Please model this.
Amino acid sequence: MEAITTVELIMLTVVSAATPLLLAATGELVAEKSGVLNLGVEGMMLIGAVCAFVGALTSGSWMLGIIAGAVGGVLMSMLFGLLTLIFLANQVASGLALTLFGIGLSSLIGIPFIGLPIEKLPTLSLPFLSDIPLLGPLLFSQDVLIYLSVIMAFAVHWFLNHTKPGLVLRAVGESHDAAHSIGYAVVKIRFLAVMFGGAMAGLGGAFLSLSYTPMWVEHMTAGRGWIALAIVVFATWKPGRVIIGAYLFGSVTILQLHLQGIGVQIPAQILSMLPYLVTILVLVLISRHSTRVKLNAPACIGQIFHPNT
Amino acid sequence: MPIRLVARQTHSRLMTWLTPIIALVLSLIAGCVVFSLLGYPPLKSLYTFFLAPISDLYGVSELFIKAAPLAMIAVGLSMGFRANVWNIGAEGQLTIGAIVGSALPVYFPESDNALMLPAMLVLGVLGGMAWASIPAFLKTKMNTNEILTSLLLVYVAVLVLSTLVHGPWRDPGGYNFPESVVFQDAAVIPGILSGTRLHGGTIIALLVVLSVWLLFSRTVAGFQVRVAGLAPNAARYTGIHFNRVIWYVLLGAGGLAGLAGIIEVAGPIGQLQPIISPGYGFSAIIVAFLGRLHPIGILFASLVLALSYLGGEFVQIKMGLPLGIAGVFQGMLLFFLLASDLLINYRVEWRTSRKFDRARTD
Model:
């Protein structure tokens, strides 16, 4: 097999930069489609990252690590579900609380694990396919979370658009009162959607601490949870476009790293601003067309549902 | 379920002020649990966290030093939250305010002009306003969600600060540390109580909070902001311009956060460093909610959150607990508050028998 070329290397790093965003944004999309805006993605990702790292390191199994990451994310999202769906709390404030809590708790859990090394997630090469030049290593020689991120985005697309439960979930997000009046369990459906979002955010965090930079660093998500939220808006709540969005932002992240690497005469900090600035720019470009956003945004997003009122 | 929620006719004023206390008590109990889980004696830890830090004059003065920026930022944010404008980027506005205000001592390190300090404070306010005007512009002209833009700008602001202290603003005589020059006396807010670090900025904060309260409750602009949040439709009919309200609250909050930022660097810190705030801009969100979006409530709430920072430092030094415990406590406090706020708008009823149910529906 020939040596990996620079182009391949860059494309591989784009894939790994995009994956945590894709996982988290796909999960958040489902929660938002059900009418719940969970701004706690950053917090859930951090808990996912630290749980996955601790799980993998103590058990010695990367599989258990991934599961621990997902479970951590789910537990956090259940806290959010309890607040907003059972205690009818404001979703924006609850999401912020979740992020602040997640930052603190993850640093608390992670203290004994800072700086410890861990083996990177193994790549699973598909036989024959991974030998295809250029595309082979890119598409068919990746780790399990990378495959999962793409599969889940397509699965969510199929679920939302081609299954009855998906239709019900969208109905709940469009009009919770109508869905309730024809007998759908609004709170239960939303709770499940929020938990799915938590699991995916947890997996996104797990990818960061097990594969992207295989170690635990405090606040290692560095705003990726917020970028994932922006990607959902960018994608106008369509799973296919979430893939495009995540890979676009992945490319920007890698671009700035490579610019730093080849010694461009710009301070590193200014290059590091790029992903955030591009996110804002893209949000602006999408949001300017207010009708496009309004047509696709779930109508009940962020609203509190209480059947007795 | 034996429990059900019945919507109240009007929201309960009693509960509005009772739930923060309920939340505080629940957080203390949960704090005990967290300390036990971490393997520390819970009551001793609670004492070290909440009482030991303020057991002497110096401790109390430190409490006020930390409460001042929290109260100022929270008052600004609370106006926005009342109008349903979610500026969560106060940390960035604080940072830019600190940078812009610091330009004077950085470029005129020899000046002992008496106007130096007032000019710095004004520049701090303007810097914070300028940074907040970005989400305001994007929200009003480009229809872009202010939550995401204001938050993302925090990361940008912190990187701007880092660029400056690692580069052009680094103190040439500072042994290559990423810090600006130490501000000259004319650029430092004087202390007001010997033996402590208490400084004039704390008094400025108190005055600012009280005057914002007056402005908010006595001016047309303040009225418009409140109406826009309470009754958006009524506001629309009466000709209140939502875009103007968005500008008011974002510029107001940005200016106050910027002021808090410059007071931090011209007060307790005395120079620009890569990190100038332990997250005051985010904790101020909790302060605003805990203080019921009301300036007087916010003054008390800022003391609670300031204590959580002090306590966090204390348990780290005295017992070796990680600093993250302060964030955990702050998060729990907000969780319990948001959950117990249910009692403001709903009454909890115990469903005792089926007969009772029928009687209600008849």
Notes: Residues 358-362 of chain B have pLDDT under 50 and may be disordered.
